[in-house]
Amino acid sequence: MGRMHAPGKGISQSALPYRRSVPTWLKLSAEDVKEQIFKLAKKGLTPSQIGVILRDSHGVAQVRFVTGNKILRIMKAMGLAPDLPEDLYFL
């Protein structure tokens, strides 16, 4: 977001953690996370909604660090990926 009273453009952005390993306090395994993704995808949720639920309810910060794949790739492997990409669907 730009600045209102200065010519600068700002540098706000989200930052991923440097360590890409699974936190020691996380009790879910990769199979448990994939099973949760499968259940939520069957309900018709989008990948971003699944990520928010996993983050807020189950404590999974980054699915890619736990499973090795992104949510959409896991959904594609299960045959549950949406026909249209999520960003185009919501236009």
Automatic annotation (TrEMBL):
Pfam families attached to this UniProt entry: Ribosomal_S13_N
InterPro entries the record matches: Ribosomal_uS15_arc_euk, Ribosomal_uS15_N
GO terms, molecular function: small ribosomal subunit rRNA binding; structural constituent of ribosome
Every Small ribosomal subunit protein uS15 N-terminal domain range: 1-60
GO biological process, alphabetically ordered: translation
Superkingdom of origin: Eukaryota
Keywords noted in UniProt: Ribonucleoprotein, Ribosomal protein
GO cellular component, one term: cytosolic small ribosomal subunit
Protein's recorded name: Small ribosomal subunit protein uS15
Organism: Rhodnius prolixus (Triatomid bug)
